[in-house]
Design goal:
A hairpin with a 4-residue loop joins strand 3 and strand 4. Helix 1 packs across helix 2. Helix content is 34%, strand content 26%.
Length: 92
């Protein structure tokens, strides 16, 4: 998959997931496959990964002026998560 391009308005990404649940499997794969490329492409954007047991996997996107939104990524594949994040980043 091509690198995910975050818009210049994106100031932070927080990825919340469970280290064990089946619904977070895609999120774990997404991090494994995309974290390094995302960080290299956007070195000034903090990308935080937080694990907590029995939590619904989500990505929080903080944009300019403190605007924050979140994406539910439960039971999604790594590819689906990447596409959803790319779409959200282009809308910001």
């Amino acid at each position: 998959m091509a690198a995910i391009r975050l818009g210049s308005k994106i100031k932070e990404l927080r990825i919340l997931l469970c280290s064990q649940s089946k619904s977070s499997e895609g999120a774990r794969n997404f991090i494994e496959e995309n974290y390094v490329n995302l960080k290299q492409a956007h070195p000034n954007v903090p990308i935080l990964v937080r694990e907590c047991l029995k939590i619904e996997p989500r990505i929080y996107v903080r944009a300019e002026q403190g605007k924050e939104s979140w994406l539910s990524i439960g039971s999604m594949s790594s590819t689906d998560i990447a596409q959803k994040l790319q779409k959200a980043a282009s809308e910001e």
